[in-house]
């Protein structure tokens, strides 16, 4: 991953793109690309979505959008000087304490750990 | 990164979250988290945004949202069986051909490589 | 709708928020709020999502996020001087020509008219 | 606006798109389109963004994406039976109480009213 970050930095520098690569612009670009990944799935039934990689055209788009999301995430992390692997390891550590396996709340959280801070638990999925 | 992917898979499995972790749901969650990262910056001036990590509260939020974005990206990649590092390396290879350094179009692209497929070049930033 | 736009403009002016209400910031805020609306649904099954308004807590969040999306859309339109109703009427006119009812392509488009410009038709949903 | 909602409903019905128009899919589509609106601005400087409508190509894209966002917002509201104008009027009423003009907190909120529920106030813009 460090090698890819370096290639991305060299790529941008060679094209004089650094002035555009502010944290705000890169966060916007990351969000836009995540939307393009979601676009592939937006009208698909769960069955079609599960088989998305069996369609060569869609499989190519998925790999392409994954690459774009990762590219902007790495470039964002470079300009704010955050190591994404360290950040994720620290978050998993915290969440292992917050969502104990034996706790029914872990099941109630129903799929994700990230959204619990934005609303009361009874607003969320799972029930 | 492989180790983090495994920890995420174990975390979800221990809490019976796999049925929720469809490609479509994970793509939606990735997009939602990218939006939360952008939210930190939405009202900031370029100067404030450049200094975002000097504010401990904001710096913590940035690391936390980076972790969430990476967590959902890795989990998405696991369910569709895509290696994100390979996908990104392949995209950099392609883009080195598409945006030659000597070509003025590279400068015109002005910041990003991903959006060129969604509109004519004169619709884009930079000029 | 004109009355609501005026109330939003007065609200922002009374709180000295206009300097923050640039087109770029408002477009970011609109995207962030649309993500928060999606967040309500991200882990829901199609059945749960269809019954979302039967849960008072979720129904309140839905109305709240709809209000936020519309608020930022109207404020964005005010600063770029676009009438959203005229823009939508013009787009429906264009799309009635582009997706004739008798044309099988209309069914192939499978759900949405907006995404066709971002990829070849065989990359899209429906099939 | 009621007339446009009816045209959108007729348009979708004539093309047999209703099965795709679930609340979850329409919320995803709304988020994707809001991302496409943001994409126009992602690399623009504040000065370029302020002049976006002076460029005919960009102005057309802005109107087009505004139309798409409004189309999906109205279709989402139709399937969940929410009146967006009523929802917004109710939210303005609530926010006039929550952000009194005389209160310094209104200025601290710095641009937006929607994000205050997702983090402590000192995490936010403005200061």
Global Rg of chain A:
18 Å
Strand content of chain A: under 5%
Amount of helix of chain A: 55-70%
Low-confidence stretches of chain A: 116-127
- The structure class of chain A reads mainly alpha
Question: Topology as H/E string of chain A?
Answer: HHHHHH
Average pLDDT of chain A, rounded to a whole number, is 87
Instruction: Give the distance, in angstroms, between the N- and C-terminal Cα atoms of chain A.
Output: 38 Å
Q: What's the multimeric state?
A: homotetramer
Q: Choose one word for the global shape of chain A.
A: flat
Q: What is the overall number of helices of chain A?
A: 6
Count the beta strands of chain A.
Answer: 0
Largest interface: C-D, 75 and 76 residues
How would you describe this structure to a colleague?
The structure is a homotetramer of 127-residue chains. The first copy, chain A, is an all-alpha fold. Helix content of chain A is 65%, strand content 0%. Chains in contact: A-B, A-C, A-D, B-C, B-D, C-D. At the C-D interface, helix 1, helix 2, helix 3, helix 4 and helix 5 of C face helix 1, helix 2, helix 3, helix 4 and helix 5 of D.
Topology diagram in text:
The structure is a homotetramer of 127-residue chains.
Chain A: H1 2-14, H2 23-41, H3 46-50, H4 56-80, H5 84-98, H6 104-109
